Amino acid sequence: MRRSIVAGNWKMNKTIPDGVELAGALSDGAGEFIDSCDVVLCPPFTAVKAVADRILGSEIDVGAQDVHWESSGAFTGEVSCEMLVDAGCSWVIIGHSERRAMFGETDDAVNKKMKAAISAGLKPVICVGETLAQREEGSASEVVRRQVKGAFAGVSGEDASKAVVAYEPVWAIGTGRASTGEDANAMARMIRDTLAELYSHDVSEAVRIQYGGSVKPGNMAEFAQQPEIDGALVGGASLKADDFIGIIRAMIDSKK
Ligand code: 13P
């Protein structure tokens, strides 16, 4: 049985004091019941260290929203895996659709970032997902398959099994129009089949797959009840302690 994982992607939100306050409310409010679920907070870079310090010793982990693949050097504006580890991160989101669409992130960059993250001891959350146009023209599976193959190229089976894949259809992100549980499960199944082709049945069964896109406390159960879905990557609803705790609760209760 795969362990559930709920991650909050704060995107470009929260000052340091606001982030510390939210992290504190979550670690106080979620403390006792989250033993059966990995919970990860991904603040903006500026708040990573302060949030990590605030929840040190709790069950909650900290992740970043992006990373560069080089360790150090003349890469103005970039942050390395080693720097993220130094700041208290154990996770990193890679290849979010906003980075792909707005900042030109390619499958090749995602692959380099994934390899760098793994070798630095960071656990990657690899984001994949189709646009509305791609879904409407019937190429959603093909697009997501290509993204998965691109991300995992040259990654060993042992390393691959530690990764998390977040299936986030672009049309569902921030729109209030979530996928259905059934459709998300079918895409997660297709991702698992792709991993089985690349590696083995065992690796494909070990990789955890999240759904992301307009997840709320009220619809989490629909996704969590699906056999192929092991958690959620949450944007907007991760910015409020009550909502995020409600999502974690729904995740845990649905997998009982
Ligand atoms: P929303 O939950 O705001 O739709 O965002 C999803 C997302 O992009 C998480 O990475």
Summarize the structure.
The termini are close together. Helices cover 45% and strands 16% of the residues.
Give an account of the 3D structure.
The chain is an alpha/beta fold and 256 residues long. It has a single domain, classed as TIM Barrel (Alpha-Beta Barrel). 45% of the residues lie in helices and 16% in strands. It has an 8-stranded parallel beta barrel with strand order 1-2-3-4-5-6-7-8, surrounded by 5 helices. Strand 2 (37-42), helix 2 and strand 3 form a beta-alpha-beta unit. Helix 1 (16-30) packs parallel to helix 2 (45-54), helix 1 (16-30) packs parallel to helix 12 and helix 5 (107-119) crosses helix 7 (140-152). It starts with a strand and ends with a helix. The structure holds 1,3-dihydroxyacetonephosphate.
Class derived from helix and strand content: alpha/beta
Going across the biggest sheet, name each strand in turn: 1-2-3-4-5-6-7-8
Largest sheet descriptor: 8 strands, parallel, barrel
- In N-to-C order, the SSE pattern is EHEHEHEHHEHHHEHHEHEH
CA gyration radius, whole angstroms:
17 Å
Q: Give the end-to-end Cα distance, rounded to a whole number of Å.
A: 11 Å
CATH architecture: Alpha-Beta Barrel
Measured by DSSP, the beta-strand proportion falls in: 15-25%
Low-confidence stretches: none
